[in-house]
Amino acid sequence: MQGPAGAFNQLLSTFNVFTVLTWKEVIRFAKEGNPKPDRVVERTEEEWRAQLTPEEYRVTRLKGTERAFSSEMCSLFEPGLYGCLCCDTLLFDASEKFESGTGWPSFTQPIKENAIAYHGDFSYGMQRIETVCNVCGAHLGHVFPDGPAPSRLRYCMNAVSLKKVKVPNETV
């Protein structure tokens, strides 16, 4: 009989294995179109408002930003996965999380190439690449080319857009 960790590992093995994304590929996705998501979740604005707190709605649906250093998630480095708060799509593995000192949780890679969509963001007089959940369109944050090797990417995420999914322990 397979324990919870075995089932979890089997689930992870169903994800497409892809090479490390680079800044060049992120820019290409933002300019030429994003990978097709595995599924699409659509809800009305009324349904999103009923599902989310006002702060969650402001950040995920209105492209807001939470205050820096406002979440304990920045200092959590336990094994597990991070999913989209709005639709439960798995987005990041905790093994790709690092301390960036920015006040927002930071990752080097998404869990799958098609988990995140990329869009040019020219608001506030800046040029950035916005990251959104590729399944439901929830605003997650931005990606920058100043992360650690090998990808050199820093996915700077709003903690309020994410939820931690714990890795089940194998039982003997």
Q: What would you note in describing this structure?
A:
- The protein has 172 residues and is of the alpha+beta class.
- It has one domain (4-10, 21-166): Beta Complex (Metal Binding Protein, Guanine Nucleotide Exchange Factor, Chain A).
- The protein has four helices and nine strands.
- It has a six-stranded antiparallel beta sheet. Strands 2-1-9 form a three-stranded antiparallel beta sheet, with no helix packed on it.
- A hairpin with a 7-residue loop joins β3 (97-98) and β4.
- The N and C termini lie close together (10 Å).
- The model is unreliable at 6-16 (pLDDT under 50).
Helix and strand layout, with pairings?
Elements: H1 4-13, H2 23-32, H3 45-51, H4 54-62, E1 80-84, E2 90-93, E3 97-98, E4 106-107, E5 116-121, E6 128-133, E7 139-144, E8 154-157, E9 162-166
Antiparallel strand pairs: 1-2, 1-9, 3-4, 4-8, 5-6, 6-7, 7-8
Task: State the main characteristics.
single chain, 172 residues, alpha+beta, Metal Binding Protein, Guanine Nucleotide Exchange Factor, Chain A, 6-stranded antiparallel sheet, 3-stranded antiparallel sheet, 4 helices, 9 strands, 21% helix
